């Protein structure tokens, strides 16, 4: 799979300079789950609840984003079997629990803000 690439949105601040609102919600939700992890269904339901009906995000968008975050090293997953076949349970990368991932994100957000100010 190819890297998703980074596109900077200079009209936003912090983490939103590189991810969309729903993507940030999904990523934070997975990071906060710790080792327990979450399924794409749980992430999808969480994001759509948080959006409060202002818009709706497809489950495919959540799946594609979470898979891209695995490729980028921001998430890890295990595969389980159940009704309908195999599915992934996403969690923070090993050694990078939810709290550490959030701290890393805050550092990255500051770096992104600093970079955006220079350009």
What report would you give on this structure?
This protein is an alpha+beta fold and 119 residues long. The protein has one domain: Orthogonal Bundle (Arc Repressor Mutant, subunit A), CATH 1.10.10.10. It is 50% helix and 13% strand. The protein contains four helices and three strands, in the order H-E-H-H-E-E-H. The chain has helices at 21-33, 40-51, 59-72, 98-118; strands at 38-39, 76-82, 85-91. It has a three-stranded antiparallel β-sheet. A hairpin with a 2-residue loop joins strand 2 and strand 3 (85-91). Helix 2 (40-51) crosses helix 3. The longest helix is centred in the last third of the chain and has 21 residues, at 98-118. It is globular and about 40 Å long. The N and C termini lie far apart (30 Å). The mean pLDDT is 79.
